Structures are given as C-alpha cells and as structure tokens.
Amino acid sequence: QFFEVPFDSNMNRTKNRPLVRGQISPLLAVCFAASCGVPGIALLTLGVNPLTGALGAFNIFLYTCCYTPMKRMSIANTWVGAVVGAIPPVMGWTAATGSLDAGALLLGGILYSWQFPHFNALSWGLREDYSRGGYCMMSVTHPGLCRRVALRHCLALIGLSTVAPVLDITTWTFPVISLPINLYISYLGFRFYRDADRSSSRKLFFCSLWHLPMLLLVMFTCKKSFLEKEDKGDLLGGNHGRAMEIRLP
Fold first, then answer.
1. For 70-90, what is each residue's pLDDT tens digit?
2. In this structure, is residue 164 part of a structural domain?
3. pLDDT in tens, 35-60
4. Where are the transmembrane segments (predicted)?
5. Domain range holding 92?
6. Is residue 24 exposed (0-12), middle (13-18) or buried (19+ Cβ within 10 Å)?
7. DSSP secondary structure code for residue 248 in this structure
C-alpha cells in the first residue's frame, strides 16, 4: 500500500485505505510493516525451522518487490501473485515436516490453481477500477485470456485432486468425494468463459470462497495417516513380522 498510494486513490475499492486518506503516515506504515515482517521471519526461523523462515522472507520479497510493481507493467503479475498465494500452505507443510516434498508442492499447486478462477472472476467486475488505476490486469487488456485461464485452472483442480492419492498423500476417496465440488466450480468457470458477464463472474467468485475450504476439509479427512505410511515403509523395507524385543529393568 505504501508503493501504491497514488494509484489506489483513483480506484473506488481502494480510495478509502488509511494511507490514501492520510490517516496514517507513510513512515508509520513502513515501520509497522517492518515490525511485523522482521520478527515474523525470525520467529519462523528460530522457533520453527530455517526452511519455513526462508519461504516467509522470500514471499515478502516476491509480493513487495516483484508482484506489486508488475501490476502496472504486465499481465504476468497474476501468475506471480498466484505463486505468492500458494506459498503459505507450503510453509505450513514445511513447518510440520521440515521438508519441501510432494505434499508441500501439491498443496501449493491447489492454492495456485484456485487463485485464477477466484481472482479472474473478481477482477472482471473491477475492470473499470483497474483501468482508472493504471493496472495491467487480464480482465482489462486480455478479457478472452482472462476467462480461458480461469476455466483451465478450474479443470486443473480436478487433476490435482486425482494426483493426491497417486502421491500417497490422501486415500482414493478424496478425488471421488471432491469431484462434485470440482465439477461445480468447473461448470461455473465454463459459464464465465461462455457468457462473459458480471452475473457469471460473481457466481464463480462466490463459489470460490466456499470451494477452497471445502476442498481442503475433504482433503484433510481423507489424508493418509502417518502410521499407515510407516507400516507401508516397513513392509517395503522387509521389516514385516520382525519381533520387537523389550528389555525390562
């Protein structure tokens, strides 16, 4: 917001932000951001693990130094912004496991794809605002691409849900149970692609608000248990049937 005050003042949805209205000073805003970001990264690094702290620092850099200026330069900002949104669940995985493995990438992939129907549908109704602010959004400069990309990533959510059991992260019930909600958002993505109006974009946007928590809740309930994975690893490692010796004092 510190970087975008002159542009936010031209947009209806951002003209009442505290910095635009002069309710707080730019110096106070930067100090507040630093007082949150620096201790936050330190806490993640020292209290969780260095990998999670590094991801947090990288995400702050990606958002402020890459995504923010790109919004006025290229529609590629949406893809960069989707990476920013995908990193937090990856950080959750690395915080719990200490590793950047298939589960982290799958969670990040789901959040990455979900953001395109979510944001593209939202931006469709804000095209006039973005144009006044001078932002390069797909909905303004490439409306056809905006709708196609939203539909593609709705369909990608079906594929990503199917990959989860293949990677041994969930059971096979996950892609089956999640299929109806993934098909529904894909249907609304197709309506948005075909109709290209405010009604279809609003329906897709509001669907995205409940779709993501529902999808992750289903994923959580269908996850493979850690003990189940350990037992499978023991079988593959030839430990099946090995007796455990217990020595009593």
1. 998 999 999 999 999 999 999
2. yes
3. 999 999 999 999 999 999 999 999 99
4. 51-68, 75-96, 172-192, 204-221
5. 4-224
6. middle
7. -
